[in-house]
Amino acid sequence: MSRPSHRLFAALYDTVTRPFEPLVEEHRRYLAQDASGDLLDVGVGTGANLPYLAGTGATLHAVEPDPYMRKRAERRAEREGIDVELRDDLAESLSYADEGFDRVVSALVFCTVDEPREALDEVARVLRPGGEFRFVEHAGDDGFARRVQETVNPVWRRCAGGCRLDRDTVGIFEAHDAFETVEVESFRGVPPVSPIVRGTLRL
């Protein structure tokens, strides 16, 4: 598995996504809602989830394999006084012990993961029995919109840090034997990044 390293993408990410952040804010609050105990953010990126998660009182851990994204997350945590342990793990190979977390969250991450099923195996491994995986992701669309995604996907991946527009993320999540699906909701995004899906799986 390749380790991501996108200096320019990391430098531009917050600036490019800032106009769309109000659309994502409620979903970040969803990830943090009623969180407690030990929490892991898989693919923390530049740390946009951290202010929401820090307000829960949970003990925060996060992983980000891209060194340029991780450096920005570290700076955000330091700037905002957020106590978080940040590691450089790939989602497919977490360095945490079995059953160490009460909740794992991801936000716009699984579109870039090389092996999403292996990453979900790891999420299941590090969750305690009864623990939750909460996610906000984008997924492949249907019909003409899907064809557009497939057409632009090769260029999009090169420009957007490996993001795959047409991945059936929810299908991968719901097919995993370790989890039961508590809820899944779908929202229109900003094409070609649409739909946005969020939900909760329970171990």
Automatic annotation (TrEMBL):
Q: Any idea which GO molecular function terms this record carries?
A: S-adenosylmethionine-dependent methyltransferase activity
Biological processes, Gene Ontology terms: methylation
Quote the SUPFAM superfamilies the UniProt record gives.
Answer: S-adenosyl-L-methionine-dependent methyltransferases
Q: Which UniProt keywords apply?
A: Methyltransferase, Transferase
Please give the Pfam families that the UniProt record associates with this protein. Answer: Methyltransf_11
Kindly give the InterPro entries that the UniProt entry links to this protein. Answer: Methyltransf_11, SAM-dependent_MTases_sf, Thiol_S-MT
Q: Where is the Methyltransferase type domain?
A: 40-134
Q: What is this protein called?
A: Class I SAM-dependent methyltransferase
